[in-house]
Amino acid sequence: MNRTNKIIPVREQIADALRSDIISGELAANTKLNEQQLAERFGVSRGPIRDVLLKLTKEGLVVSKNNIGSSVSSPLSAEMQKLSIDIRRKIEEFAIKNVMDKMTENHLKEMDSIIERMQSHFDNEEYTELTKVDIEFHQFLVRLAGGEDLVNIWYPIVLRMRMNYQRIKTSQTLVDEHKTILDGIRAQDVKAATAALRKNIK
Amino acid sequence: MNRTNKIIPVREQIADALRSDIISGELAANTKLNEQQLAERFGVSRGPIRDVLLKLTKEGLVVSKNNIGSSVSSPLSAEMQKLSIDIRRKIEEFAIKNVMDKMTENHLKEMDSIIERMQSHFDNEEYTELTKVDIEFHQFLVRLAGGEDLVNIWYPIVLRMRMNYQRIKTSQTLVDEHKTILDGIRAQDVKAATAALRKNIK
DNA sequence: TACTTTTATTTTGTAAATAATTAAAAAAAG
DNA sequence: CTTTTTTTAATTATTTACAAAATAAAAGTA
Lengths: 202, 202
Hints:
By secondary structure, the first copy, chain A, is mostly helical. Chain A is built from eight helices and three strands, in the order αβααββααααα. The longest helix of chain A is centred in the C-terminal third of the chain and has 36 residues.
C-alpha cells in the first residue's frame, strides 16, 4: 500500500461542480438555486447543500436572502470589473515578489504540470476545465506567497471576474502567457514575470 | 402600529457576537471553537452554529479543517498587513470617487448618526463597540459605491486587519478623522475626502 | 373586473438523532 | 521503558423530522 488515495469531501465536490456550472454559464445569472433540487441532484441531504451555498455566497458566485433562498449572482458592473483587475494585479504582483525565495525545484515541477494540463484542456477544447486550471495556476502562486490568508482574499475576486468573460479568450495565447510567467519565475526575474502577469490579467 | 421592529436573524446575532469576541481578543488566536459548546452558549442547535462558523471562516476570522473543526485565526503577517492596507485604500478610494453622485441628504444624515454613535462609544470607553461602528462607517461608503459585490471583497480584508491592532488607537483622533472624511464628502471634495481617508487607514 | 383577504402549498430555518472520523487512552509487544 | 497496536471517547458530518416563513392560489368583497 504505497499509493496515497486522496479523499475529496463531498461538500468540496459539490462546490466544485456548482462553480463549474456557474462559470461555464450553464447556470445563468439569477437562476434560483433550490436546496431540495440540488440535494436530489447530488444524492445528499439538504445539510451539505446549505453548507455549499453559504460557501459560494461568500465567494460571490451566489447571493442569498434570509428565508428566501439563493440564486446565481449577476456579472460585475464595468467599474467593478476594472477595480477587480487592479486589485488582482496588486495581489499577484505581491505574490510574484514574495514567491521567489520560497520557490523550490518541486514547486516549479508542479507548475510545469499545471501548464501541461492547461495545454491538454485547450487541445481538447474543454474550456471550462481550462478556466479552472488557469485559476489553479494563479492560486498556486498566491498560496505559496501568502498562504490561505491571501487565497481567502484573492479567490472571491477572481471567481467573480470569471463570471464576466464566459468562454472568451480561449486562444493558445492564454497558455503561452502562463508559460512566460513561469519562465520569469524560474529565472528569478521579477520584472519579466510581473510584466507577463500584467499582460495576462485583464 | 407605526414602528418598524427590525428582526435580526439568530445566525446574524451569533455571528456578530463571535466577531466581537474575536476582534476584542476575548477569544484568543488559535482557540478551538467547539460546535456543541457554542450551541449551548447561544441556546440553539448545532445547525446554525455550523452556518456561522462557515461564514466566519470565509471572512477570515476562523480557520477550519475537514473533520477536525474550527479555531480562531492568527494575526496577519507584517507583509500581509501591509498589502491589506494597500488594497483597502484602493477599494475605499474607489468608493469615495463613486459615492459622490449617489450621496443624498438622507445618506449624509445616516453617516452623521454613525459618527455620533462612534463618539458616544468612545466617551463610554466601549472600545469593541467603537471598532464595530468604525467598520460600519466605512462599510456604508463601500456598499453605497459598489453594492454587496464590493462589500463582499472588502469585508474580509478589514476584519482580518482588525485582528492585528487590538484596542490600540482609541484616541479622539479616530473619531475626528471620520468627521473629516465626512466633511470632504459633504463638500463633494474628492481630494480632501481621499486625503482624510488615507490618514485613517493605516 | 379589480382588489383585498384568506387559505394552501412550497421552501427555507432549526432541532434532534445517527453515522463517520479523529483524537485520546489503554493495552500489548518489543 | 519505549513504541506500536487496539480500544474507547469525543467531535464533526450527515440525515431525518419538524417549525417558521414566504410565495402562490383561491375565495371573498367592492
